[in-house]
From TrEMBL:
SUPFAM superfamilies, sorted: WD40 repeat-like (SSF50978)
Lineage top rank: taxon: Eukaryota
Organism of derivation: Guyanagaster necrorhizus
Any one GO molecular function term: histone acetyltransferase activity
Annotated TM spans: none
Pfam families from the UniProt entry: TFIIIC_delta (PF12657), zf-TFIIIC (PF12660)
Protein name: Transcription factor IIIC 90kDa subunit N-terminal domain-containing protein
Length: 782
């Protein structure tokens, strides 16, 4: 095996971490959640020279290729619930309140909050559940508790069913001992409905699992169902991926483990249904019905208990991985496959230091699809590799060139020795144990990310305890066996053309492997550019909506916004273009030659234009529908949309949609704008916010007035931004006005310029919760 390559070592001082397979996890926004004893660290990698934060520099630890930004979720002890107020019984007390710490985190899918981000469910040792989301800046800013909502009182109210105080058996149902959040489901509806179908499962001390769904609009949870699965505590939960079952239906499995070590399954069915019976004016809205059935147990009670529970998926095939001290059990039920039922692999001892033991808990489970291998890390810093997982799982492999447990463990140990000697300036000996408390894959292959902590079991001095730092390591442990440019292009094409908007995953999460390779494969840059240029573009066909007939009001605005969201962010072809743009812009930063950079910029401009034509076309279609309720205030924006769509380089479909809209507005009685004003070039001029001189906003990206005042234009509405109430894209840095709903106090004046004070502009800003160009999330400062 080739030597491991260290990409980054980020030190997180004075942190005690807990061994668990969920200690490190990726959110669908491309952030790493690291669960330590006292806080949850949220780390964001910088890709290919792109700093995702606002303007602040990231952490600089070592001169490695990969850098990080970070922020934290701080759980305060004063927030913990006193369970004795609900019941005086001994059984209701929580010992976790004495040694208060973060126990687990479950990240929601992305695109569930109002600003298109994730929510983190945080479980404390006191069995309190709380929900957290970013207030303004998810990368470097503060994460706050969902303000109007606290999950534990909600659960107590739920179980007590109106009776107060709740009896002991009810209170135990509100004491949460394990959590898991499912991924988003794809019902194969296009454009994707952008309806949250994901479920938060909360296992309790009473042996029940409570299924909840997050409502981003009001930042609260809805109770879906509580299912009793056991009489013991529910200690582990793991959702499988959703499988599409046809006719707007999906199904998935929730595996649960209880305190006696037994494991069982609950089957979940999701059905998407039209929210209203009649077909309305806009894109139809959907609601998700959910049904449950508890099926048989898989593993019976086991003395050691479960230490990790996870599903691995390969092309619609699934295996449940259950770890217990000294063994790994695999379970699979599809009988048509090469194996089914239970396979148990006993973990052999592997001594790397004085603390090595095969009985340590498993702290990371990584499945590498390309090679059909399962990498497993133990708390003692050793690694194990299971080969041919879906064919015939076994420890050893016939091929001498492939990864094996011994050499992978030694590679991890070499990195530990190298990095610790750099930090501690002491020699690392056999007495130093490398505690790996969590391990995940960085790129879906064997570029791994783990947390290491040095520990000397024989040294009892307080100094060692006090100096406990966690180090987050990213390293290539092995390349694909047949790693070539062809593989890279195959993977790139797969991501660019097959990614589905229904999952709501951000481009920065999807493209992380590509960005890693971009900086490491400079020889391929010219070919990558050729490839990006050669990918075909197709516009989805669009049918007309019937005109709106019910007048202007909240009902129209809500439907208009939801329909826009679905058209702008539920379209796979638009997502594919956004991914291409993001790769091209990243490439322009990595490419060495000036001519290559110029060419990159040309390709990026071309893709930008395509995106802008597709979004304008969907906007024109929505505007055409609401012509009967347009008013004079809406005209400056409508004129801009018409002007930009009528330019010579617009595709015929966009030009004809603009003409259609123009004719419909001209036919309005009484007229709200003259035909001449509707299509003239004057559409793009705007008074300078400083001196009032007219300035043309089409000329450059940053227009200047005759007196030299320079302005940024909003990437969503094209109006000049002379306000601090703006947001900036974490991917491409384009800026846009903050939607008016983000006002921190009700009395705040409208920050949109007078020309943009139109309900259409307001709803477009609300609908654009992500960047229209590269599809990433926004962050704001104010
Ligand atoms: Zn001026
Ligand atoms: Zn962007």
């Amino acid at each position: 095996m080739a030597d491991p390559v260290l990409l980054s070592s980020l030190r997180i001082p004075a942190v005690r971490s807990r061994p668990s397979s969920t200690c490190l996890q990726w959110s669908a926004d491309g952030q790493v959640f690291f669960v330590s004893n006292s806080a949850v660290y949220i780390l964001t990698p910088h890709h290919a020279g792109i700093h995702p934060g606002c303007n602040v520099r990231g952490d600089k630890e070592t001169p490695c290729t990969l850098q990080w930004s970070r922020t934290i979720i701080n759980l305060e002890k004063r927030d913990l619930r006193d369970w004795s107020t609900g019941s005086q019984e001994w059984a209701a007390l929580s010992l976790g309140s004495f040694d208060f710490h973060v126990k687990d985190v479950a990240c929601s899918p992305s695109y569930v909050t109002e600003d298109g981000g994730c929510v983190a469910a945080v479980l404390s040792s006191n069995m309190d559940l709380s929900l957290w989301s970013a207030s303004k800046n998810s990368i470097q800013g503060e994460w706050i508790k969902a303000s109007v909502f606290d999950a534990t009182p909600f659960l107590v109210d739920l179980v007590s069913n109106g009776a107060s105080p709740p009896v002991l058996s009810q209170l135990l149902q509100a004491q949460i001992t394990s959590i898991a959040w499912s991924r988003q489901a794809d019902f194969a509806i296009r454009p994707a409905p952008c309806t949250d179908a994901s479920l938060l499962a909360a296992g309790s001390r009473a042996g029940t699992v409570c299924f909840l769904r997050f409502d981003g609009r009001v930042a609260s949870l809805h109770h879906i169902r509580t299912v009793r699965v056991s009489k013991k505590w529910v200690t582990h939960l793991a959702f499988s991926s959703w499988m599409h079952e046809g006719d707007f239906q999906c199904s998935g499995l929730l595996a649960y483990s209880t305190s006696d070590g037994s494991v069982g399954l609950a089957k979940i069915h999701l059905m998407a249904q039209n929210a209203t019976k009649d077909f309305g004016t806009f894109n139809p809205e959907y609601i998700v019905d959910t049904a449950f059935e508890v099926t048989e147990g898989i593993f019976s009670a086991d003395q050691g208990g479960t230490t990790a529970l996870e599903w691995i998926t390969s092309q619609e095939r699934m295996i449940l991985v259950r770890c217990r001290p000294g063994a790994i059990d695999l379970w699979r039920n599809q009988s048509v496959c090469s194996w089914s039922g239970i396979r148990t692999l006993t973990i052999c001892p592997h001594v790397l230091s004085v603390g090595s033991s095969e009985l340590h808990p498993v702290t990371g489970i990584v499945y590498v699809l390309q090679e059909d291998i399962l990498l497993v890390s133990l708390f003692d810093g050793t690694m194990r590799v299971i080969h041919k997982v879906f064919v015939d799982p076994q420890w050893s492999s016939e091929s001498p060139s492939s990864l094996n447990s011994q050499c992978l463990s030694e590679a991890v140990r070499r990195i530990f020795v190298g990095t610790m000697q750099g930090i501690e300036q002491e020699e690392v000996t056999n007495n130093d144990v490398n505690r790996i408390s969590g391990l995940i894959s960085f790129d879906g292959c064997a570029t791994l990310l783990w947390t290491q902590q040095s520990f000397r079991p024989a040294d009892l001095s307080w100094k060692i305890e006090a100096r406990r730092d966690a180090v987050l390591i990213a390293a290539h442990l092995s390349r694909h066996v047949n790693w070539t440019g062809d593989n890279f292009f195959h993977e790139l094409k797969e991501i660019l053309t097959s990614s589905q908007s229904a999952y709501g995953v951000t481009p920065s999460h999807l493209l992380r492997p590509v960005f890693l390779w971009l900086s490491e494969l400079p020889d391929l840059h010219v070919d990558i550019l050729k490839f990006l240029r050669s990918l075909p573009v197709s516009c989805p066909s669009q049918c007309h909506f019937p005109p709106w007939s019910e007048g202007l009001g909240e009902k129209l605005r809500g439907k208009f916004r939801k329909s826009l969201v679905r058209s702008l962010f539920g379209c796979d072809k638009l997502l594919s273009l956004r991914l291409r743009l993001y790769v091209t812009e990243a490439l322009s930063r990595c490419i060495r030659t000036p001519s290559g950079r110029t060419e990159c910029i040309q390709v990026a401009e071309f893709i930008c234009k395509m995106i802008s034509h597709m979004t304008t076309r969907c906007l024109l279609r929505h505007l055409r529908t609401v012509v009967p309720v347009l008013i004079a205030n809406d005209m400056p924006f409508v004129r801009r949309a018409i002007y930009l769509s009528s330019l010579a380089d617009s595709p015929p479909a966009v030009q004809s949609a603009a003409r259609d809209l123009m004719d419909a507005i001209s036919a309005l009685q009484p007229p709200i704008v003259s035909h001449a004003r509707l299509c003239g070039e004057v559409a793009m001029t705007e008074p300078c916010p400083a001196c009032g001189e007219e300035l043309d906003t089409t000329a450059t990206a940053r227009p200047a007035c005759p007196n030299g005042h320079l302005w940024d234009c909003c990437a969503v509405t094209s109006f000049i931004m002379a306000t601090p109430m703006v947001r900036s894209c974490t991917g491409c840095k384009r800026k846009s006005f903050l939607p008016l709903s983000r006002q921190s106090e009700p009395a705040m004046p409208n920050w949109l310029p007078p020309m943009a004070q139109s309900w259409v502009v307001e709803e477009l800003l609300e609908a654009s919760s992500r960047c229209l160009y590269c599809g990433n999330n926004f962050v704001s400062i104010v």
